[in-house]
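note to self: dont lose this again. the chain is below, predicted strucutre after it. 688 aa total, dont forget to put it in the shared folder this time
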Amino acid sequence: MKINLFLVSCFLMQFAWGGVITTSLVSLPDFGNVYVLNSSTSIRYTVSATAVAGNLTITAPSGFEISTHYLQGYTSVITISPNAGNVTTTNIYARFSPSITGFLSGNITHVNNGSPTQNIIVQGTGIAWAIAAGYYDTVTTQRNAALKTVLYNRILGHTSVSYTPGVWNAYSTTDRQPNSKVWDVYSTRFDTSSPYEYTMSTNQCGSYAIEGDCYNREHSFPQSWFASSSPMQSDIHHLFASDGKVNGWRNNYPFGNVSAASTLTLYGGKLGTGANFGYAGIVFEPINEYKGDIARAQLYMATRYDNLIAGWINNGNANDVLDGNTYPAYDTWYVDLLISWHNLDPVSDKERKRNDAIYAIQNNRNPFIDSPQFVQRIWGGNIPSEPTVGSSNLQVTNINNNSVKLNWVSGNGNRRIVLARAAAAVNDLPADTFHFSANATLTVAPQIGSGNYVVYNGTGSSVTLNNLQAGVNYHYAVIEYNGWYSAANYNTANILTSNGVTLPITWLSFEGIYKNKSTQLFWSTAIEKNNKVFVVERSLNNKTFEAIGLINGSGTTNMATQYQFLDIQLPDVSGLYYRLKQIDYDGKFNYSQVIKVNVDEAEMETFFSVSPNPFKQNIRITYQLNQPELVYYELMSSEGLLIKKGYENANQNQGHFVITLDEHIGNGIYILQIKYNNRNIIHKIIKQ
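---
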């Protein structure tokens, strides 16, 4: 009997007395490069459980988000209640939403008390905005035809590739899914399973008879409209990979909204008639997922070929959409349709990556992907509709004397903005059609009105705020919105608010090491004010904690202070969770981060320590490993600025290496991140 090892690895099951948690995958494809404060395409997997007691808790690592709904509800923790001890197969959608640059990795954990934890490995890299400096410098205050001409002069004269094999070869970088399959503009879906997928190059058309036979090159702006001339024929910005049969059904019909379909594709595309802002001919309607992609490609064609498009009106059935002029280039009904699709389906991570990949090949960009507000500035039209579901469940965590982390469950806006105000409730809100930049460092964050600091503007569901004042009660507001820049539409009638007090203590580190059947806990602080005591708490399930010891605090001090505690009464389990409850003399208290200490043999005596702390120039990293590892490190300022990065070949057992720094770096708190074997260790260290 043959065993399918692929299915075994992708359909992991572990058994325990307490129950069984099953996930359809053990790792997700690398999310790749994602712009900071933006979110990747979501990837779906499933989870189920049998014979479990209590809730199933799913937790995403820092920088990643999960939801049970494809388009909304993203957050860091999901709780699923079983029915009669069982959790039916449930779709989980995961995405990468980085708030800082750099590589991030970790595990999505699936935890139930008494059941073995199931982990799914995730990774991705946050990158800064990639558009070359000065690319759009010629754009100032122009609008309408004048702006269209300015953009034309910016993107004309691109490097043209051959139709064969140039376009086919381009798809390997421009139209590739995270799993390396072909990204079909009419067919690829992530909200549900796909009836077919294509292998790059292997499944090129060729001939086709039914959907799923092969993929080919779809001119979203039909070839007949420009008489199959160059460079339009091979301009990748409007040339998408597409199922051959669906491409044939679309033919050269205009795009539109179908009310009476004559043909339905397996993925939900439609061919038929409908009332499209006054046009009642036959049209093709893709699924909502790609309507914005198609609209922005059509607007690119009107802009890139500003000097030619007026002369195409008599080619084929181009008269169905073209008006015979340079501006607005399209008939009113088609402009209205494209704007509505542009608003319905905002720019996605997929489009940004495709735009970057095409730029690397053609040396020009689609400006309506880079700056979606250009659409309204040129063609006018309505702004996107206001979101109908606000954010929820705002939590203030990781509280210390100068920073906090905000987590929330996102609503159905395509973006959200977060405000913070000291000592009083937020009293001024963003206005529609205005853009507000943001900064998580409060002292430099822009303001709306007086004292309402804009600390986040992005697509994710968390932000860590810095440079807060110790002991101050801050108030927060999360506002969902659609659109961008001059097309922004904020839901200010349904805002999410909360508040929280920062603590008079700065945490530097909190670590635990299992050794000789006991746990040694270490923690250190940079600054303490009015700190009475630490209560050490332990948990078996990361939900219910019990106090196991007390360590007196240092009152008030500006010196770095180190503490330790030995837990020798260990229950017979494979992992323990610890946290510290810090209590002030006035009775205020809060909690440290939770750490997990593994107690199985494979994890024994694995640790990293940093000294000296505070440091003056060099940092010594001491480690103990149970096998050789390639260890990466990144040192960043508290504002997220990369100071130094590198790697070391660490030996088995105990050893050390030294990070040498420029003696001129400023005093203050720095973040040292150590990465090895899909693990992340973070230390706060002080330069003085």
